[in-house]
Amino acid sequence: MDTAQRQQLREEGWCVLPGVLTADELARGRAAFDRGIAYMREAMGSEFDSRLDRNASNQRIYNLPAVDPFFIELLCREDALELAREVLGPHVLISNFTANNALPGAESMRLHSDQALVMPPPWIHSWAANLIWCLDDVREANGATRFLPGSHRFRSFDDLPENAMEQTVAFEAPAGSLIMMEGRMWHTSGRNVTEDEQRRLLFAYYSVDFLRPQSNWSEALPQAVRDAMDDESRHLFGLGAAGNVRIGGQLTRLESA
Fold first, then answer.
1. Which residues pair with 15 in a beta bridge?
2. Is residue 248 part of a domain?
3. 255 domain-assigned
4. Which domain holds residue 67?
5. Does residue 204 fall inside a structural domain?
6. Alpha-carbon gap, residue 54 to 91, rounded angstroms
7. Any domain includes 210
């Protein structure tokens, strides 16, 4: 992240880093996404979530770290963690990691702030952050995520204007980009009005370590996935004996008697 991107993030609550994923990483990400769709169909019966979306043209994948090791690699990359820590400070945890695909005909979901989902107002500080990995070219017509400029300064629900949706703007970025958005930003999925384009995005959600993560990774991740993690990854997932604590810069452990 360069100086201009860092300044934009601090002032506007978002920035775009193009070209973060290589062509090989994009191919791995797309293949892993396909495995995620199969995982949802097997585990949940469908990749359509009627609680969030208006029709089945919007596909969702939950619990990405359980699907493929590639997704854990993304979460623990130093460039991704640098972005999360730029907003949240040094002590971050992985709260959730999901994916969304807007197929032709997909409609927008409800406007929301991710930080407002996990803590009550007032939202004085940013205690959550979204890193959005773009597996396709993202533009307004194919359902790019829409955000409400300036809404990362809102402190309560009363600050949200009645015509908020009309004021939203689409993020646009080429495939392989990483979009950073702080957790207080109000946003929604866009409408895909194209005839033949899909828009695949991965939503990595980080939070400060004193907030309970959205996912209970001890329950959500298979034992084999947890066993394959190194100490740093286990800490980021809050899987240690003291899941959200470091002492003296080292991972906290309870020694056996």
1. 180
2. no
3. no
4. 3-241
5. yes
6. 37
7. yes
| Pairwise CA distance, residues 187 & 165, whole Å | 9
Mean pLDDT of 238-257: 57
Inter-residue contact 219 to 161 (CB < 8 Å) = no
pTM above 0.90, yes or no: yes
Phi first, then psi, for residue 29 (nearest 5°) are -65, -40
Number of domains the chain is built from = 1
| Mean pLDDT of the 240-244 span | 73
Tokens of residue 18, six digits? 């193009």
pLDDT at 1 over 90: no
Q: From 160, 153, 174, select the one nearest 110 (Cα to Cα).
A: 160
Q: Residue 59 belongs to a domain with what CATH number?
A: 2.60.120.620
Range scoring the smallest mean pLDDT among 10-24, 46-60, 104-118, 189-203: 46-60
State residue 247's pLDDT score: 53
Q: Answer yes or no: is pLDDT of 102 > 90.
A: yes
Q: Report how far residue 178's alpha carbon sits from residue 87's, in angstroms, rounded to the nearest whole number.
A: 15
CB distance 101 to 199 below 8 Å: yes
Task: Report the phi/psi class of residue 75: left, alpha or beta, with left for phi > 0 and alpha for psi in -120 to 50.
Answer: alpha
Q: What percentage of the chain carries pLDDT values higher than 70? A: 95
